[in-house]
Amino acid sequence: MIELKNISKIYKTNNGEIAAVKDVNLTIEKGEIFGVIGYSGAGKSSLIRLLNGLEKPSTGSVSVNGQEISSISGKQLRNARQKISMIFQHFNLLWSRTVEENIAFPLEIAGVPKQNRDTRVKELIELVGLKGREKSYPSQLSGGQKQRVGIARALANNPEVLLCDEATSALDPETTDQILELLLDINKRFGLTIVLITHEMHVIRKICHRVAVMEAGQVVEEGKVLQVFQNPQAPITKNFVIQVSGAKESKESMEQILQNYPTGKLVKLTFVGSKTEQPIISHLIKEFNVEVNIVHGNISQTANGPYGTLIVHVDGEIQNVQKAMELLDSLEIQTEVIEND
Ligand SMILES: Nc1ncnc2c1ncn2[C@@H]1O[C@H](COP(=O)(O)OP(=O)(O)OP(=O)(O)O)[C@@H](O)[C@H]1O
């Protein structure tokens, strides 16, 4: 669906050249929700602007649905862009137009006759949950409602791809979740391909199927969301995963536990899918006669199923602790000994 081949983007400034994107290769499948995560300055915005031809790559090619976006311009590019919509962090609404007039705007530009426009606007208002607010102006809406208008407007011409540029970064956590659920619903109902950029792992966890992690212009890690959560490789990815697993907060408890129990092992277990529902801890205690003290636990849902982390202190006869570890390994649970005595 979307293919980026050897993409680099170099900006020429008065202070020299800035390589914002460096040799990125990505393939995004039709109907997928693909997330790009990175800290500020990682090159995410530059990358997403290359996808709809707002920027041209310095090297490499971008193709969307078989059409090479990086090499077209003028009318051809404008037509292609009708199928690649975008929503923004600050909504980019027209402040002098009502909700329905904002949503009708791209239909007017596309030359859709008035009657068809009205029908489509009604459909979209229903879809994004804004019934009753048709005549409101953006200044009369909450942040979440403004983004709903942004989404309706982006969907007006039935795009094939929706690009989301930090679409929930200006919203509170609860509204963020509601908007993410709306995007997930739209993806499921219409098979719309969604590419989103964010600096929040929570957003990736909640709706993305696959993720690419960007650092200093490069993609340093890429994979299915559950796999990346279970087994992050790059240090930056590990930091992002800690953002949502909350493991950092438990450092103090771990130190306390280690002080209180100078023997045994402190282990972090990461498990996904049906393994989150197995009675693993009681099994360890019964089978190997070990003591298991839970230091920290967390379970959360991703678009592809549950994901959980558990930090436990396992103590007992050395060989029993060892056998308990072997069992965990055999269950294909990610096991990481945090500190050894
Ligand atoms: N139009 C531009 N001209 C010159 N430099 C730019 C331009 N746009 C981005 N850059 C530079 O390219 C690098 C990547 O910026 P980019 O905005 O793509 O990153 P980002 O990950 O989206 O960060 P943020 O979330 O802060 O926007 C930065 O060093 C930035 O200063």
From TrEMBL:
Q: State the Gene Ontology BP annotations.
A: amino acid transport
Keyword Ion transport belongs to the record: no
- InterPro entries according to UniProt: AAA+_ATPase, ABC_transporter-like_ATP-bd, ABC_transporter-like_CS, ACT-like_dom_sf, MetN_ABC, MetN_ABC_transporter-like, NIL_domain, P-loop_NTPase
**Pfam families, per database record:** ABC_tran, NIL
Keywords tagged on the record: Amino-acid transport, ATP-binding, Cell membrane, Coiled coil, Membrane, Nucleotide-binding, Translocase, Transport
A GO term for molecular function: ATP hydrolysis activity
Q: Provide the ABC transporter domain boundaries.
A: 2-241
Q: Does the keyword Membrane apply?
A: yes
- Stretches assigned to coiled coil: 314-341
The family database entries (PANTHER family) matched by this protein are listed as: AMINO ACID IMPORT ATP-BINDING PROTEIN, METHIONINE IMPORT ATP-BINDING PROTEIN METN 2
Q: What is this protein called?
A: Methionine ABC transporter ATP-binding protein
Native source organism of the sequence: Ureibacillus massiliensis 4400831 = CIP 108448 = CCUG 49529
